[in-house]
Structures are given as structure tokens and as C-alpha cells.
Amino acid sequence: MAKQKIAVLGGGVGALAAAFYLTEQPDWDSQYEITVYQQGWRLGGKCASGHDTRPGHGARIYEHGLHIFAGFYDQAFDLLRRAYEVVDRPYTHPNRTVFDAFTPEDTITLVDQSIPERPNLMWYMDFPPNERVPGEDLGVDPLTVMIQRMVGLVLHGAPTQLQCQAPTHPPGTNIVENAISWLSNFVAKTEDELAGLATNAFLKVVVTMLEDHMTSIRHQTWDENTKIIAERCLLAVYLVQSIIHGVAADDVLKKGYDVLDKYEWNEWLYANAVAVAKTQSPEWGDPDTRAKQLLAWTPISSFYDYVFGYADGGDTSKPDFAAGTALRAAMLMISYRGHFFWKMRGAMGDVVIAPLYLALVKRGVKFQFFSRITRLNIDPNTPRLASIDYMEQARLKDPEAGYQPLIEVPLPGWPEDMPLEGWPANPLWDQLVDGEALRASGRNFEEEHAGNPGPGDTPRRLELGRDFDKVVLGISVGGLKQVCADFPARLPDSNWGPMFEKLTVTRTCAMQIWLTRDMADMGTGNVNRTLAGSAQPYSAWSDMSHLLSREIWNGANRPRSVAYFCGQIQGPENGKAADEKAYKLAVQWLKDNAAIHWPRAVSPESPYGLDPKVIYDPDPSAPGDVLTRQYVRANCAPSDLYVQAPTGSLYTRMDADESGVDNLFLTGDWTHNGINSGCAESAARSGYRCALTIFGRKPPLPD
After folding, report:
1. Residue 145: what are its φ and ψ, rounded to 5°?
2. Is 10 exposed, middle or buried (0-12, 13-18, 19+ CB in 10 A)?
3. Domain membership of residue 408 as a residue range
4. Phi (first) and psi of residue 503, to 5 degrees
5. What is the C-alpha separation between 255 and 421, in angstroms, rounded?
6. Residues 158 and 299 reside in one and the same domain
7. What is the CATH number of the domain that holds 50?
């Protein structure tokens, strides 16, 4: 029997995950031939990265943003573990196994604006590591277990020096020990018992202890820092109590998280916080005021930063994050395996995308680069995809060999014959016909889309039966609005129209700065940390100095640290105009915020706050300012846009087999996949679902 041909459209995590899990199925290669069609010269989509190959630039890593895996990324770690095993690198390779390629991070920093008299207060949140390993178990814990962990984390964060002096408890009683002792008996609760938590079967104990203690210490003389810690504990318990009240009130245990997506996260929290405040400790003030205080709390606002959860390109007055998706994400984050965050030891393209590419090539999957999909054509008489239009962006000098996209990055300290496989920041022009002319013209294959064709593109068409039998659609939703523009009218009973209307996307911006001094020397507290809650548009940043070991720096004249930033950006600009806007915003952001993060490296004369001598200059003789020789970009191309999770949008998402077209299967973080938010884990889960669906074994969605 002839093999069926599967065309995979797109090269992001969702598309590559679908292709990889297809090759994990027994005897897949006797049934299918798989070809991945990708715009431009590299894979990765929003996760694409590249090394600067110019002499003297150290093979610097350029990212689309700040990419860090969360501890609940089980499907993503499963995907990578399997891919690394297929690639089977030698023991001397710097990234031999998946856990050689990641490093844990347990401390997260928030810029706490909750205390008016102490603006920009750094709050270091420590998350205790555990023995669980991400990717070993793809099951999702029930909400009851996640709530236990949530309470446990609150208790872990309570300071042991706060002793209960309230009359309802014996003098000297330790709040934390008392509560943990209670928690140790809080196991295997039934749904009815959990519902009772809303009326304080459990939290009443914790809240009473903390609030009694707060009443006591407010009448005592305590140092300011202890009071701040105590207030945070009280707000944390208030948050937990409000969540559990809402879980019970909306019957989430029986109906699932999705029932809440008709609410906005802040809206849902506010309603339940008011309800709790009306019944608990009314002496703490007006319920409306108290609930608003909770919503303004830094952990809540930073959560929106983490998921790019503001409408209109980051307008902080317009939060829009669906409540069910938000609650699921919060519960998954605190149910981390091993460590709260996992940082990559290398560019995301090197750690995530290159191993997937190498594994797929090793298994016989074909890749056709420089193929920009422009239109999917449904058969006029049947619900089948009949043809696919695309533009051939460039011709190869050696079509038989195909485009070879990776470069070798020889890392100092590692064997010369064990370089790191990575992606260049630009195409390998010498493999292209008229490559030098294309380079000189400034051709940017990734900025092109259906409404912006590139010069010299050659139109091509893939035909059903000749070039494909089944199609995996892994293009991001931003690009789909053009590629599948006629789907809503052609498929009126499907969710294409509602999805295009409800599932919003946002522009993001990224900044990377290489520095001549290490973070501690510049006055940064708690180095090697990730920080959220800073000012927009670069509201999150991380000390990524460990990545200098994955670049090529030798001698004394080299950077000593590097910082990555990201956030949302507003405006209609595209291409160079958008990058210029991101740069201007970066200059202003540094001018306003440099002293907060690097107090010993600022200069009042500097136009961007930082002393120019602190910024590493790879080419001091070049024209322009040193900051222009760092890396700042705006992600505005359709496939670069971040997929948000606004209120009600979940109900318009489609699962792998819900395209309305018999031979078209869906993958990507925009699908209905059990996470439903823009992240690598959502994309990996979607790819897994897509592959198993094609084989007739679609797994159930987690509760």
C-alpha cells in the first residue's frame, strides 16, 4: 500500500511536536511520509533564536523574548527528553541530555509596589525544590491536591519568627508549625469536604491564626520589615481563601476550570474576595476596599505580566485574562516538578528547536525551508483540503541536498569536535542562488506574509493526492487570519469565525544588554534571578549571565553579564519602524528604571540611565550609540504575535480534529489543548494531541 503524505505547515513548537510524536508511533514510517514546510531559514516560530555570526560579536544569542520553562512543563520536557535520546549525543557534548541543557531556578523576584512608603521594594520569593522530575508523569493532579500545595506554599512563606500572641492561642505558639501540623492531616479530602473549605473548615484555622496574630502585632512595636512580611502573609491567605470560595461557589470540582472562562480573572477574584471579606474579620475594613487591595497586590499584577494579559498592547488599565485559564495556570505553576523555573543553557533554538530538528531528520522527516504558505484551499464540493498555495522565497544552489540550516558554535572549554548546534541570526546566504545579492538587498524572509509578498517570490501549489493526503496546520493564529481568511464563510458551522474574533494576539518587545560588570558589582540583589512586576513595556527581565558560556568570548575584553527583557508593546508599526519604536521605549525605560535594578552602575549624564562604560560594546569604532549595538526588537510579524487568553475565548478554540475539514488537523498554543494559553507547554500538548488524533487515539482533555 502506498504511503500517505503528511504536510506539516509551520515550524513552531506545536508543529514540530506533532511531527515528532507522529514518528513516535509504531510503524509510522510504513504508513506516512512527513514534510515540514517552513517560511524563511529557521524553525521555532515565536521561539526562534539565532547567533550573531559577525566577527567580534561572540556568536551572541538573539532571542524573540525571555524564554524560561516553568516547572509544570511536563509535555515539553517529555518531548525534549525523547528528542535528545534520538539525537544520542556523545558524553562530551555540552548539551548531551535534556537536563544538561537546563538549569533550575527557585527564587523569583517581584518589584513590589504595594507599599506606598516603600516604592520599588524587591521581594524575593523562594520556592522549595522537590524530588519530582518534569516530564516523568504526564498526568495532571486533581484540583484538590493542587489546593493542598497552594496552602502549603503559603505556610512555607510564613516567617517562623512570628509567634502567635493572640488570646485564642497559647503564648509562644508557632503559627507555621501549628498550621503545618493541621495540614498534615488534610489528605484525601472528598469533594464535599473541599466545598466546605469555602465556609472555613480548613482556612478558618489558618486565617484565624494569622488575623489574630495581626491584631496582636498591630498593637505592638515591631520592626518595619517584619510588619511587611506579616502583611504579605495575610494577603496570601486572603487570596487562597478567595480562590477556594470561588471554586466552591462555581462548582469547579464538578464542572471543571472551563466553566470560569466566562469571567475575567480580576473580576472573578474581586467578587469572591468581597464575599470572603464580608464574612471574615469585618474589623479589617470595607470589603470593597480590601478586595481592591488584593487585586492591586504585586503577585496578581505580575501574573498578568507573565502571560502578556493586558488588552490593547499592554494597557495595564485593561486586564483581560480568562478566569478558568488563569486559575488552571496558577494551580499548575504551584504544582511544579523539581523546581519552579528551568532556565535553558543555551538559546531556545539551540536547546529546544535544534534537537527536535535533528531528531526528525534522523527519523527521515523532510524539511522544505523558504516556503511561505499563503492560502489553504478547500474543495468546493467536499470538506477536504484540496490544495495549498505557497511562495518559494529563495532557490537553493543544491536542491537535492536541501537547505542545511544549522551552524556549529565551538564553545570555550569544550572539545573542539563537540560544538553546539545552533541557528544563525541570518540565512546562510552561500546556500542560496544569488545569495549575496539577497543579503545586500536586506531581504528579510520572516517579515513577509500574505499581505506583504517578497520580491522575486515564485508561486507554488501543493495538490491533494500528489503532494499531501493529510495536513497538520501549525501556523500561529496571527498568520492564520490571512492564510485561512475564507474559512469562516466557507465553514459557517465551525469555530473559525468566532475564534478569529475572540482569540486576540498581542505584539511583544525584547531587549538584551551585554554588560562589562557582573550583576552583584552593579548592585543587583539576588543575582541569577528572574524578575517581574517592573514598569511596562519591559516589565519582566532575567539575569541570563549563565548564557555567556554558550557564546564565544575569550580574553579579558568580554562581557561579564547579560540581561534579557520582555513585555508588551502598543502601536501599528511594522518592520524597522516597530524596532525603532521598541528601541526608543528601551531608552526611556532604562532612564526611568536603571537605578532600581543596578544602583551602582547609573550615570545621571547618560541618556539611558546606565553608565555607557557598563554596556559592552562589540564594535567601538562603529557609528551610533553603544545601546544601538545591543539587541532590541519588536515582534510584530503575524507569526510572531503572542496568543492571549481573553475572557470567553476558550469556547472558540478548536481541538486537533475540529477544523471542519476532514484531512486538516490542528496544532499550536491557539488550539483547545488543556492549557489554552501562549506557552511552549500548551504547544507541546497540542502537538501530542494532534499526532495521536491522526492515529485515531486522541487522548481526553485533562479536567
Report:
1. -70, -40
2. buried
3. 4-56+348-496+650-694
4. -85, 95
5. 46
6. yes
7. 3.50.50.60
Q: Cell triple for residue 541? A: 527581565
Residue 542 sits in the same domain as residue 615: yes
Tell me if 297 sits within 8 A of 687, measured CB to CB: no
5-64: pLDDT as tens digits:
999 999 999 999 999 999 999 999 999 999 999 999 999 999 999 999 999 999 999 999
Instruction: Tell which residue, 41, 40, 58, has the closest CA to residue 630.
Output: 58
Do β-strands 540-543 and 664-666 pair in parallel, antiparallel, or remain unpaired?
Answer: unpaired
- Which pLDDT score, from 0 to 100, does residue 281 have? 62
Environment class of 316 (CB within 10 Å of its CB; exposed 0-12, middle 13-18, buried 19+): middle
Average of per-residue pLDDT across 253-273:
96
Residues whose CB falls within 8 Å of the CB of residue 227, separated by 6 or more in sequence, listed in order: 217
For residue 95, is it within any domain?
no
Query: Could you tell me which residues are beta bridge partners of residue 112?
Result: 121
The count of domains in the chain is 3
Cell numbers standing for residue 557: 575584553
Measure the CA–CA gap between 43 and 34, rounded to whole angstroms.
16
- Residue entry with cell 470593597: 288
> Are 166 and 302 found together in one domain?
yes
CA pair distance 317, 312, nearest whole angstrom: 10
**Rounded CA gap, 263 and 266, in Å?**
8
340 vs 125, 159, 332, 526, 684, CA distance in Å?
11, 20, 10, 16, 19
Question: Which residues lie closer than 8 Å to 530 by C-beta, 6 or more apart?
Answer: 66, 68, 105, 108, 109, 341, 343, 540, 541, 542, 543
Tally Cβ neighbours within 10 Å of residue 5: 18
Whole-angstrom distance, CA of residue 468 vs CA of residue 551: 40
Tell the burial category of 430 from Cβ atoms under 10 Å away from its Cβ (0-12, 13-18, 19+): exposed
Report d(CA 615, CA 15) in Å as an integer. Answer: 38
pLDDT of 336-386, one tens digit each? 999 999 999 999 999 999 999 999 999 999 999 999 999 999 999 999 999
Q: Residue 16: CA atoms inside 13 Å, Cβ hemisphere, count?
A: 30
